[in-house]
Design brief:
The structure holds two protein chains of two kinds. Chain A is an alpha/beta fold. In chain A, 43% of the residues lie in helices and 17% in strands. Chain A is globular, with a radius of gyration of 22 Å. The longest helix of chain B has 20 residues, at 335-354. Chain B is of the alpha/beta class. In chain B, strand 1 (31-36), helix 2 and strand 2 (63-66) form a beta-alpha-beta unit. Classes of the chains: A alpha/beta, B alpha/beta. At the A-B interface, strand 1, helix 1, helix 2, helix 5 and helix 13 of A face helix 1, helix 2, strand 2, helix 3 and helix 4 of B.
């Protein structure tokens, strides 16, 4: 199909703005109209700026307006970042040249060039990262501020590194601008879809198996690392979930599941549900281009396609965003993908780390139990 | 071809024309709206609409299709992509297909009008164009006018006497506002005092065929004065007079009843008596607020200020620089029912301060 009916995933511009606005001290300017500004602004609830272009700039050029805004913001921030939107990008103005007197970050990431992930990674690539030689610690990657698990994932990654006595390097993308000057040589991730390429990638904290492997690699990389506490924790977590899952399986059949999320999150969810509940994964839809490791995923970004997949497969459990919940029918639902609206989320719930695994399985078991009981 | 003249008064922060137009076209349940542009434009707007749908506990999901413009289309033109999507949309046999252009298609010069004319299926083109088409409000007005033109084929003005219809149309309800249903209920209550009914909510939760009822009402009631151009267009087209706003404030609600009565040929006395009595009861219910010292954070020259001052005066609330800040909802509450909900908010604000 040429068109996309009810598209459910943001564009590259939103991805770029999300990445940059995660660093305090960077003023993010959306070089575009108020329409392009309002969506990321309402999604992120961060201070964002915009040139608020109108037709006048399309005809006479936007340089004056852009220079004026950069000039105004520069004294109050460590750095100014300009993210280009669709119309100015096709007008062909040389933004780097226009702003040559300023030391800015410029990200050419108009919406038509790709999806959220491509914009996020393009922005990260343009950050003035300084890989400090022998910088202590490990960077945390994969924090994405529109992800409902961002805060929880960050805390969990920091906690696990602390348990091993390893300092935290730069957190991509939720840190200070100054932190970019002390980026470490090594990185771990809480979301492999958003690996920045800065530092040697030592592994992921998404799922217990990944955590085990990553802890082993970290121990090999850093001398005098204490892994004993994490190893005990991993065993305890696995035992707790297994017990709960066994209890569920004593009464109920394994759930048949459809999953709609980013490639890494849906891969994590599928593997975890198969492992603990012997779940039948009926369909795995990916918002972004599936990586090699998720080749069973199909890229799905249209709510109409999602609705038809759910209707065709008749799952017991649907994992996804608010969009999936609205077409899930009688199936149990667990939020995995942004946006998750229509409920209060005050605590810092993780998906990564041991607490993430516990929290995810807790949500799944409770949702499935509720559905079973309401069907009685 | 550029579809729109350059609006000189475009507000820089007035939002996107597309969002305004979509707030109208998606109010027609059996329609499909094609956004000719990159998928991101459609996602931004669809996500906003979906969030509103959730807030309003309504689960009819509108059909918004992106023509999925890519970098290739930006270079070589997106007309072919648009044509394909129109044909795909038509295969689902929707009540009506709307096509909205975006700033990017306007900039590269796609001839959207020609594509819609050559599509071989009926298509309603709404002249938007992202920020090149104006702002949210302009998109909203243009869409209302474009959609109203669909009602032209069924005009039977000679056979029809507006004054005897006994009904009103609601024009341009803000489908994206949280209290859209409550406002509707309030207007329905007020016009029922004049023995009038609602003929059509234009365009909220209606079908393509419902649009044909648009000419058959005694009075059009506009949501707000910014829609006056739409009111005039409908008056020219169908000879239906209009009231230019939903009622706001104590005396505003009374004038509203009087205006609707005059335009519909109804007798207002009974309705005015009932409403004045109801307003008195509501104000008495909040007589405990008398003497409260409060502060406002709305501009003194703004349209809400006299409405709030009128309520202060009626209850006996005192304005003071060291008073409690009172929340004044935006948009301003509609009718006496809306005023009552706002008074509950005020009572809570004053109680919080007292604690």
């Amino acid at each position: 199909m040429q068109g996309c009916l009810n598209p459910v995933w943001p564009c590259a511009l939103t991805g770029a703005v999300t990445a940059l606005s995660g660093f305090s001290g960077i003023a993010v300017i959306i070089h575009g109209s108020s329409g392009c500004y309002f969506y990321p602004a309402t999604l992120l609830h961060n201070d964002l700026h915009s040139t608020f272009l109108v037709e006048q700039e399309v005809i006479f050029g936007s340089s004056e307006r852009l220079i004026g805004l950069v000039h105004e913001l520069s004294p109050d921030y460590k750095k100014v970042a300009v993210v280009n939107s669709c119309v100015p990008s096709i007008l062909g103005e040389d933004i780097r040249d226009i702003l040559s007197e300023f030391n800015i970050i410029f990200v050419d990431s108009p919406g038509y060039t790709g999806d959220f992930e491509s914009g996020y990674l393009a922005a990260v690539k343009d950050l003035p990262v300084c890989m400090e030689k022998n910088a202590e610690g490990v960077n945390i990657e994969g924090i994405n501020l529109i992800d409902p698990f961002a805060r929880g994932n960050q805390r969990e990654a920091e906690r696990l590194l602390q348990l091993m006595g390893i300092p935290v390097g730069t957190i991509f993308c939720h840190d200070s601008y100054q932190s970019l000057a002390r980026t470490a040589d090594f990185s771990i991730t809480v979301n492999p879809d958003l690996c920045t390429g800065y530092g040697h990638q030592l592994g992921s904290l998404l799922g217990l198996n990944s955590i085990r492997k990553t802890v082993t690699v970290l121990a090999e990389t850093f001398c005098n690392t204490d892994t004993s506490r994490i190893e005990i924790e991993l065993l305890a977590v696995e035992e707790r979930i297994t017990k709960a899952a066994d209890k569920y399986l004593k009464r109920f059949n394994p759930p048949a599941v459809t999953i709609f999320s980013t490639c890494s999150y849906s891969g994590f969810a599928a593997a975890t549900l198969k492992h603990y509940l012997d779940a039948d994964i009926l369909f795995c839809g990916s918002r972004n281009d599936p990586a090699r490791s998720c080749m069973n995923n199909e890229k799905v970004t249209s709510l109409a396609v999602i609705e038809s997949a759910i209707r065709n497969h008749q799952p017991d459990l649907v994992l996804g965003s608010t969009f999936e919940r609205s077409v899930a029918g009688d199936a149990a639902f667990v939020g995995l993908t942004p946006p998750i609206r229509g409920e209060f989320r005050l605590s810092s719930k993780p998906l990564a780390g041991t607490e993430g695994e516990l929290s995810f399985m807790e949500d799944v078991l409770n949702a499935c139990m509720d559905r079973q009981q309401s069907g009685k | 071809m550029i579809l729109n003249p350059l609006p000189l008064s475009t507000s820089r922060t007035g939002g996107c024309t597309l969002t305004g137009a979509l707030a109208v076209t998606t109010g027609i349940k059996d329609s499909v709206t094609i956004i000719h542009g990159p998928p991101g434009c459609a996602h931004h707007n669809f996500s906003l609409l979906h969030a509103t749908i959730l807030d309003n506990d309504c689960m009819v999901i509108p059909s918004v299709i992106s023509s999925g413009m890519s970098e290739h289309d930006v270079i070589f033109g997106g007309e072919e992509a648009l044509m394909k999507v129109i044909i795909e949309a038509a295969s689902g046999d929707p009540g009506i297909i709307f096509v909205l252009s975006t700033c990017i298609t306007e900039t590269i010069g796609d001839d959207v009008l020609a594509v819609t004319q050559n599509a071989g299926v009926p298509v309603c083109l709404v002249p938007t164009g992202g920020f090149l088409g104006g702002d949210f409000e302009m998109g909203f007005c243009r869409a209302l006018i474009a959609v109203s033109n669909l009602a032209y084929p069924v005009i039977r003005s000679r056979e029809y006497n507006p004054e005897s219809s006994g009904s009103v149309n609601l024009i341009g309800e803000k489908n994206l506002e949280y209290e859209v249903h409550e406002n509707f209920v309030e207007i329905k209550r007020l016009v029922s005092l004049l023995d009038l009914t609602i003929n059509l909510r234009f365009a909220h939760d209606i079908t393509r065929s419902d649009i044909d009822r648009l000419p058959f009402a005694s009075v059009n009631i506009l949501r707000e004065p910014a829609l006056s151009a739409v009111g005039s267009h409908l008056q020219d087209a169908f000879s239906t007079p209009f009231v230019n706003s939903f009622p706001l404030g104590i005396s505003g609600t009374i004038s509203f009843i009087r205006d609707v009565a005059t335009l519909s040929g109804s007798k207002p006395e009974k309705a005015l008596g009932i409403e004045k009595k109801y307003q008195k009861e509501v104000l008495e219910e909040f007589s405990d607020l008398r003497g409260s010292r409060v502060k406002l954070k709305i501009p003194a020259g703004g349209p809400e200020y006299p409405l709030v001052k009128e309520i202060f005066h009626a209850i006996g609330i005192l304005e003071s620089h060291d008073g409690t800040v009172l929340p004044v909802p935006y948009p301003f509450p509609v009718g006496t029912g809306g005023m009552k909900r706002m008074l509950h908010l005020w009572r809570r604000a004053l109680a919080c301060r007292a604690v």
